[in-house]
Amino acid sequence: MKKGFAHFFLAVSCLFFSPLYSQTGVTGLQASLKPGADTAKMEWFGDAKLGIFIHWGIYAVNGIDESWSFHNKKIGYADYTKQLKGFTAAKYDPAAWADLIKESGARYAVLTTKHHDGVALWDSKQKHYSIPANTPAKRDVATPFFKALEERGIRKGAYFSLIDWSYPDYPGFLKDSSRYDATKDPARWKKFSDFNKAQITELSQRFNPDLIWFDGDWEHSAEEWDAPGIRQLLLSRNPKAIINSRLQGYGDYETPEQHTPVTRPKGHWWELCMTINDNWGYQPQDTAWKTPADIIDIFADAVGSGGNLLLDIGPRQDGSIPDKEVEVLKELGAWNKKYGEAIFGTVGGLPKGHFYGPSTYSKDSTTLYLFLAGKPTGQVMVKGLSNSIKQIRVLGTNQTLPHRIVGKISWSKVPGLVFIDIPPTVTDKYMPVLAIDLVGKINLYGGHGGL
Ligand code: FHN
Fold first, then answer.
1. Residue nearest to atom 5 of ligand 1 (CA)
2. Ligand 1 pocket: which of 112, 280, 282, 286 to mutate (most atoms <8 Å of CB)?
3. CATH no. of 349-445
4. Distance CA 319, CA 342 (A)
5. pLDDT tens-digit readout, 102-143
C-alpha cells in the first residue's frame, strides 16, 4: 500500500471511530492500520464486540494440552496420536452449538479448523491427518458448524495454525529437536509451504470465512511463510475477509491473549482472546472456572477500551460442552440482552481519569454509557464532562436518575463534576449500566483544572 493511501485511511478511520479525540485533542487511541487494512470491511468486527472461540480436537480425548502436550514432551507423540481413535463426536450437535452462541449475544465464532497438531476438522483433500479420515467420528465436523452459524446470521471465523508439528516436511516437531533447518533446505520447506497454502485455499473456498484466525506465526518469518502471498490468496477470493494479527504483520487487528490489556492496545482494532478456565481445550481436572461476574467484568473492560472479547470454550471429544461454559455463555447472554444498547455498535469510551469504571459511547457520541462495576450503591462521579446532560437512563428499566453538578465556576471553561446518586432500585445480578444522553457530541475537558 502506498504511504499516501495509508495516511488517508488513517485519517478517515480516526474521524469515523473517535469523534471525541478529534474534537478535544485528548490522545490515547492510536490508529495503526496494517498493510491493506480497510476501514469499511472492519465495521462489522468493530460493532460485534463478542465472539466465541472453540478449541475442539483430539486433545479432548485425554483432556490434555492441545498440541503442546506432545511438543513439550509431556506425552509421547505415539500416545498423543492414539487419541485419534477416541474422537467420536457422538453427541455433536452443531445447531445446538450455534444456538448457544447466539444466546450468548456473540456476533461471530471462531473454530479451530486445525491446531498445531495438524489434525484437520474438515475433509481436507491434502494427505494428512483429519477427523473424517482418521477418527471414529468419520465425518467433516467443520462444515455443519459453519452452516449452522450462517443460518443464524453469526459471522464465521476459521482458526488455522500455520505451524503443523505433525507434517513430515514441517521443520518443527518436538521441543528442542527440529526435523531440519528451513533456511538450509528451501526445497523441503517449499513442500510444506505448498501444502499449507493448499489447505488455506481449501478453507477459503469451502467456508468463505468472514475471519481467518491464524496462529503460530512465531516459528517463521513473514518471508518464509510468504505472509503477503497468503494474505493475497485469501483476499483475492474474498476482499472483505478479515485476518487477525498472527500473520507476521500482515493481519488487520491485534490479538492480546489471556490478559486484559491495562493500556489500550496500539492497534485500531483489537480482540482479547481468553479461556473460561485456564485451558483452551477440554481438561476435566481444570476447575479454575471464571464466574459469569468475572467474564462480564472482563468483557465490559475490553469493550470500554475499544476492543472485542473472543471467549473460548473447549468441548469434550463427543461434542458436548461442559456445564460451566454453558452457564457462563447463558448468563452473559442474558446480561447482553439487557444492556446491548451500551455494547453492540458502540465505540470505546472515556479515557482514563474521567470515571472509575468501563464506559462506551454511542457511535454518534451523543450518549455516554457508564458500566457500574462493583454495583455501587452510593454515588458515582464523572470528571471533565463539558456537555450538558439531557437525561440519565437506567438501562433495562424505565427509571431515570437525577444528577448534580458540583464545583462549576460560571465564568470558567472548566466543567464541574457530575455526581449521580445510585438508589437501591438500581440493581443487577452482575453490573448495571447507565445511559447519559448528552446535549451535542461528547466534549471532554482533560486538563488540570484551575481557571
Ligand atoms: O499455542 C496456541 C494455544 O494452544 C492456543 O490455541 C492459543 C489461542 O490463542 N494460541 C496459541 C498461543 O498463543
1. 280
2. 280
3. 2.60.40.1180
4. 34
5. 999 999 999 999 999 999 999 999 999 999 999 999 999 999
